[in-house]
Write a structure and sequence with these properties.
globular; six-stranded parallel beta sheet; alpha/beta
């Protein structure tokens, strides 16, 4: 594809501000020319803010009336499968927000149904954060040698009441209140995917999921144990109900190798051992940058014909880890509600 791609955006919720900023940076190669959302008010607000000329009440209407090359699906995950199939019926390339579908049982037939019919990429942007890309490069270059252990931690007070009695995580993303599978399926799916990108395929060996906040439907704490194919022990420790933690906090990562170690602590990534290096990051720029890089990868791959890094097959592997977490924890793996 040599012409600028014409993109239709499905969804106008909170996250789409980051999608649209990413698309704006590709001016000349791609542009969002149409948007649809069940909320006319939300669609109009995004359209006005980002100069999108065409707005529609439904995806059916947008796809029927617009000349598009691809769609960016940023709608609730409960409708991902039907929207991907709708785009596939019109032969359009698709960038679909993670996960491909709410459960593995829904995602597997979807991947089979569209295989060979369209180009489909899952929008999994966490792994595109610059500090994770730098850590991955160090590992590939052999800077820390064979990996022996790794730990990723996420601690916030998002599901503890603040001074006004509100839950910061729910204020930010209200849909989380009713998710029966909340922390792992909605948040830690990113971390599981990123760990696989860094360390290779993983198996979940044990998982404990807990619920502290009685005002949400799902879990807000997780301790997950995994094993890499190379025999390294890997742990993922997370809580949205950690007293004394801020409402939002960056990841903390440690990867130990035979020749060195990599540590991420907030804004700083440190390499120690046989090689030594420290890099610092602007967290806000890194956050937006992960969307920019994900969308740029989608467009680059469409134009070059190269494979997507976050293909449906890759996302299915992550969804299998998610399902294993719920199965091994003893929590019923229920279908999630809409965002």
């Amino acid at each position: 594809m040599s012409k600028a791609l014409r993109i239709g955006l499905i969804g106008a919720g909170w996250v789409t501000q980051y999608h649209l900023q990413g698309w704006q940076k590709l001016a000349g190669n791609a542009s969002v020319v149409a948007i649809t959302d069940p909320s006319a008010e939300n669609a109009a607000a995004r359209a006005n803010e980002f100069g999108i000329e065409q707005r529609f009440a439904s995806a059916d209407e947008m796809l029927a009336q617009c000349d598009l090359d691809a769609v960016d699906i940023a709608a609730p995950r409960a409708v991902h499968a039907e929207l991907v199939r709708l785009a596939a019926d019109r032969g359009l390339a698709v960038l679909c927000q993670k996960p491909l579908a709410p459960t593995l049982d829904e995602a597997e037939p979807l991947a089979r149904d569209v295989a060979g019919r369209i180009r489909l990429m899952v929008h999994e942007n966490w792994r595109f954060r610059s500090y994770y890309r730098d850590a991955a490069a160090w590992i590939r270059e052999g800077r820390i040698g064979a990996i022996t252990a790794a730990r990723l931690t996420l601690m916030t007070s998002g599901t503890l009441p603040d001074s006004e009695g509100k839950y910061p995580a729910i204020v930010r993303q209200p849909f989380m209140r009713t998710e029966t599978r909340m922390l792992v399926a909605e948040v830690l799916i990113h971390h599981l995917d990123t760990l696989c990108m860094l360390l290779g395929p993983l198996d979940v060996t044990a998982a404990t999921l807990t619920q502290t906040c009685a005002d949400i439907a799902g879990e807000d704490g997780a301790v997950i144990q995994m094993l890499s194919q190379g025999g390294a022990g890997v742990s993922l420790f997370a809580s949205f109900a950690a007293h004394g933690a801020p409402a939002s906090q960056p990841d903390h990562l440690e990867i130990l190798g035979k020749a060195g170690a990599i540590r991420l602590d907030g804004t700083e990534l440190q390499l120690t051992g046989a090689h030594n290096e420290v890099r610092s990051y602007d967290l806000a720029a890194t956050y937006q940058g992960s969307y920019d890089a994900t969308i740029a990868h989608f467009v680059d791959a469409l134009q070059s014909g190269a494979p997507f890094e976050t293909s449906p097959e890759d996302n299915l592997q992550t969804l299998r880890l998610v399902e294993d977490c719920y199965r091994l924890s003893g929590r019923k793996a229920m279908r999630t509600s809409s965002k």
